[in-house]
Design goal:
The complex is a heterodimer of chains A (381) and B (332). Chain A folds into two domains: 160 residues, 3-Layer(aba) Sandwich (Rossmann fold); 124 residues, OB fold (Dihydrolipoamide Acetyltransferase, E2P). Chain A has eight helices and 20 strands. In chain A, strands 6-7-8-3-9-10 form a six-stranded mixed β-sheet, sandwiched between helices. In chain A, strands 13-12-11-14-20 form a five-stranded antiparallel β-sheet. The radius of gyration of chain A is 25 Å and the shape is globular. In chain A, 40% of the residues are buried. In chain B, strand 1 and strand 2 form a beta hairpin. In chain B, strands 1-2 form a two-stranded antiparallel sheet. Chain B has two domains: 64 residues, no CATH class; 232 residues, Orthogonal Bundle (MetI-like fold), CATH 1.10.3720. Chain B has 332 residues and is mainly alpha-helical. The chains are: A alpha+beta (381), B mainly alpha (332). At the A-B interface, strand 6 and helix 2 of A face helix 10 and helix 11 of B.
Chain lengths: 381, 332
């Protein structure tokens, strides 16, 4: 899983600063369509210059939330502030917000240039300034030479950039992107992700991105808001969400994970011991968990944090015997599916550091599976 | 109108034709046909061409032939173009006099121009009334839309002639409209509506409105509504979005609707003769008079040919403009 492309020297974490004013404030917003609750009591603070990703499966309410920010839907209850101004009842054409549509929604009867100039003409920007801003924007998205083309004469990637230019040229306070990369093929998508981040950093516009693609959310965003059934289940940086999921849902939604259901048998402030049904030996975790002793908990361990070895590990915790059932060779890494004595299938990934196949663990081999005390995440729901 | 799974009657007929023609092609006769480059596909596509040849081109050539002949008191009432002059010599006698007559007598000019004017105004009225109707239909929800669509086509369930006659009953001096207005005390004596241009326009707009609404509807219904959201997002109020996005994108529908109304309206005979002033000059009426009253088939044919030329040239131009617009609106 790649981390954000942001410069690590510049710590950009306004959400940790108690004095920082949120730029976009979503206050207890609920949206109902008839009896169906699309968005349920969502509150969110988003800071200036963030790339905030709303991530979730289809139908989780993320697009509805985005459309309420754009003004296409009005919240049933709750309020939306942008830069301190209440936007809840404002129609889309009066909001300092622009949207990049999933289908791009380029005007087919206009050239690239006319598409990009559309919003500025609407604002009665003087001719000279308009020409300059449109030209600059087309340069920025590298479409200068295509300005006289019609949308149907462009490739998918070019259309995507026209849509981006058209939304950005108005210098919106907030840019909303609905699945911005979904229509592009994999290679182009990776390239465009980084381009998108560069443009965002150049212009300093706050982005809110809706996506169902976790990899896209991981690479693009400063923070992710993970949604499920119309509610925000966790907000955090990509690392927070991946390494410190607050529930089984989050742990299982992002990446792959092996979850072991069990009970707390030792519950100390500095460590816990969990007896899992599928393991003969307990799981030892080197931090405390706030839960009643004897309560059911889940220990989640990422596949890359489990290791296979041919020698028996030391100690009495955090290991088990397992048999290799399946191997998927991916080039840079391999995915191993192992069966525990209880019958549970566990997923392990290992980088292919050796070129020769005979060095690696092979089918039906019995190995010891072990992990560090820092690796498991214990969740209570 | 119909879901992807449903097969319309027209499609079913097409499948049936393809099937039966396919059977011919696969038969031993077909093997020979295929050697000549005849496949099921070419047979199917040739059906409309055959239709046009039989019911358009051949009659057109006959009319063209008559338009170049001399009138005669005979059966049929014109002289043949070709005749044997003597041994092995065929004389072709082309009489251009009929066309010259059309130019000399300004009755024809006036009728042509008046017909085009009446048809033009009717087309414009149909557009002004039909566009909002089509728009409302295209933007209503699926179930209402089907009802509205049925209502738009409903007049076709009754004969066109009967519907025009019904307007006489409504518009005449002691007709429904005048009686109602008098009963309400709006007027004291009946307004002369029948046998006026007003009545002709009513009849024209009423009869041809569906031909405007249907192509416009099918165009507007296909429009991607996120384009309107995009326009609103970029600062357009709803009416601005209409003029900047919806209207330009509906030009192919407007052109198609206008052609479907204008072409038959120019040659219209029934409506002006039933509802209009008897003195109203319409080319359709002139043609009728020449043909049935004067029994001058050659002049009547020349009138028809000239009308065709008058219509075909601008329509070919419009058609080209429409294709260009369609090309512009393509994709996206």
């Amino acid at each position: 899983m790649a981390t954000s492309a942001r410069d690590p020297q510049l710590k950009f974490e306004p959400w940790k600063d108690p004095d920082a004013q949120p730029y976009v404030r979503i206050e207890r917003v609920t949206k109902k369509f008839g009896d169906f609750v699309a968005v349920h009591d969502v509150s969110l603070d988003i800071y200036k210059k963030e790339i905030f990703c709303l991530l979730g499966a289809s139908g989780c309410g993320k697009t509805t939330l985005l459309r309420m920010l754009a003004g296409f839907e009005r919240p049933t209850t709750g309020r939306i502030f942008i830069d301190g101004v209440d936007m809840t009842a404002l129609p889309p054409y009066e909001r300092p917000v622009n949207m990049m549509f999933q289908s791009y929604a380029l005007f087919p009867h206009m050239t690239v240039e006319q598409n990009v100039a559309f919003g500025l003409k609407q604002d009665r920007v003087p001719k000279a300034e308009l020409t300059k801003r449109v030209g600059d924007m087309l340069e920025l998205v590298k479409l200068g030479q295509f300005s006289k083309r019609k949308p149907h004469q462009l490739s998918g990637g070019q259309r995507q950039r026209v849509a981006l230019a058209r939304a950005l040229v108005k210098k919106p306070k907030l840019l909303l992107l609905d699945e911005p990369l979904a229509a592009l093929d994999k290679k182009l998508r990776e390239h465009t992700q980084f381009e998108l981040i560069n443009i965002q950093e150049t212009l300093g516009v706050t982005f809110i991105v809706v996506t169902h693609d976790q990899e896209e959310a991981m690479t693009l965003s400063s923070r992710i808001g993970l949604m499920n059934h119309g509610e925000i289940v966790q907000v955090g940086t990509p690392t927070d969400i991946y390494e410190y999921p607050n529930s089984r849902f989050v742990a299982e939604f992002i990446g792959s994970v092996n979850t072991f259901e069990g009970r707390l048998v030792e519950d100390e402030p500095s460590y816990v011991r969990i007896e899992a049904d599928d393991l003969e030996r307990p799981i030892y975790v080197d931090h405390g968990v706030s839960s009643a002793p004897g309560a059911t908990v889940w220990a989640a361990i990422r596949p890359e944090k489990m290791h296979m070895s041919r020698e028996k590990p030391q100690g009495s915790d955090n290991w088990t015997l397992a048999t290799v059932r399946d191997i998927a060779y991916m080039g840079d890494l391999s995915i191993y599916l192992l069966r525990l004595p209880s019958g549970k299938i566990v997923r392990v990934t290992q980088p292919n550091v050796y070129r020769r196949a005979d060095e690696r663990v092979t089918w039906e081999e019995q190995v010891y599976l072990h992990w560090d005390a820092t690796s498991p995440v214990v969740v209570t729901k | 109108m119909s879901g992807p799974g449903a097969v319309s009657l027209g499609q079913r007929i097409n499948f049936w034709i393809e099937d039966s023609l396919g059977a011919i092609v696969r038969s031993p006769v077909g093997t020979r046909l295929r050697r000549w480059g005849v496949t099921g596909r070419t047979l199917v596509t040739s059906v409309p061409y055959f239709w046009l040849l039989l019911f358009f081109l051949i009659p057109f050539v006959i009319v063209l032939k008559i338009s170049f002949s001399h009138a005669a008191i005979a059966m049929p009432p014109y002289e043949p173009l070709l005749h044997w002059a003597s041994d092995k010599v065929v004389m072709v006698k082309l009489n251009l006099g009929n066309f010259a007559f059309l130019i000399e007598d300004n009755l024809y000019w006036k009728s042509y121009l008046n017909s085009i004017m009446v048809a033009g105004v009717s087309t414009l009225l149909c557009l002004l009334i039909g566009y909002p109707m089509a728009y409302a239909m295209a933007r209503s929800n699926a179930s209402t839309r089907n009802v509205l669509l049925l209502l738009a086509v409903l007049p076709f369930f009754t004969s066109f002639l009967l519907r025009v006659y019904a307007w006489i009953g409504l518009l005449k001096n002691n007709g429904l409209v005048n009686n109602a207005l008098m009963a309400m005390g709006v007027i004291d004596e009946p307004i002369q509506m029948l046998q006026t241009d007003f009545a002709v326009y009513i009849g024209m707009v009423y009869s041809y409105l569906p031909f405007m609404v249907l192509p416009l509807y099918s165009n507007l219904e296909k429009m991607d509504l996120t384009l309107l959201e995009a326009a609103a997002d970029l600062g357009c109020r709803p009416w601005e979005a209409f003029f900047k996005v919806t209207l330009p994108l509906s030009i192919p529908g407007i052109v198609a609707g206008c052609l479907l109304v204008f072409i038959p309206a120019v040659g219209e005979f029934v409506i002006p003769s039933l509802l209009g002033d008897p003195g109203m000059l319409m080319i359709g009426k002139v043609l009728w008079t020449e043909f049935f009253n004067n029994r001058d088939w050659p002049v009547a044919s020349a009138v028809a040919i000239a009308l065709l030329l008058f219509l075909v040239l601008p329509i070919m131009y419009l058609d080209r403009a429409q294709n260009a617009a369609a090309e512009r609106a393509e994709g996206g």
